Structures are given as C-alpha cells and as structure tokens.
Amino acid sequence: VCCTRNNVPADRHFFESDNGLAQEWGGLVWCNPPYGRAIPDWIAKSAAAAAGGAQVLVLIPARTGARWWHEAIAAGATPLFLRGRLKFWRNGVEGDAAPFDSAILCFGLRQDQFDALSAASM
C-alpha cells in the first residue's frame, strides 16, 4: 500500500490510482501513506485490517502529540522509533533529510516479530 515496485518487493501493490483505502488488506502489509490530513484515515484502515488478522507496518511521522497517534496506540499499535531522519528518494535521486522524526507503527505483530523488527532497525 502506498509504495512502488521499485522500493518495496511485494506480491501485491496498490498505487494511488487504486485507492489503497478502498482495498482489502491482508497478510503482511507495508504502508507508507501520504503525509497530511488523510493520516487518520490510514491509521483507521490499519487498525481495521489488523483486527481482521493482517499485520500492518505504517511508516509515519513521529507526531506523538497528534490525535491520530493516540488513536493508533489505543487501537493496539506498537511504535518503533527510527534513529536519525529519513531521506526519501524520488526518481532515483536521494533527497534531503526529512524535517521530522519518523516511526513505524506496528499493528497486529506478535511480540517476537516486533522484537526482530526492532533489532533489525538498530
């Protein structure tokens, strides 16, 4: 969801034209949603998919004071805070560092899966 074949190898991809919010999510889902006013919609979709058995990882700005952040945690998401600032690539060109910290909100992961992901991010 919200990625390209160039940056995330996956069995299925939903592109902007597919409207990932309107699709059914299942299995292991990676989501890098557009940052902006629609973030609460992506959080709600992630929580609903996890309630249905999916495991959802959402790359998100670490905005711990935002209402949607608190809703994600209340829905069972576990945050994995990333060290440093991410750099996003566009058309094969590395961009500047993001002006904010980032986190991965993990919905529906077992503790051992979260521990493995956490260890890999260090």
Describe this structure in words.
This protein is an alpha+beta fold and about 120 residues long. Helices cover about 25% and strands about 25% of the residues. The chain contains three helices and six strands; from the N terminus they run βαβαββββα. Strands 1-2-6-3 form a four-stranded mixed β-sheet, with helices on one face. α1 (about 40-50) packs parallel to α2 (about 65-75). The longest helix has 13 residues, at about 40-50. The two termini are about 25 Å apart.
Key descriptive features of the protein:
122 residues, alpha+beta
Shape: globular
Tally of helical segments: 3
Average pLDDT across residues?
86
Q: What is the C-alpha radius of gyration, as a whole number of Å?
A: 14 Å
Order of strands in the sheet with most strands: 1-2-6-3
What is the CA-CA span between the terminal residues?
25 Å
User: Residue share in helices?
Assistant: 25-40%
Main beta sheet: 4 strands, mixed
The topology string of helices and strands comes to EHEHEEEEH
Strands, count = 6
Uncertain stretches = none
What's the multimeric state?
single chain
In percent, how much strand structure appears in the residues?
Answer: 15-25%
- How would you classify the helix and strand content by structural class? alpha+beta
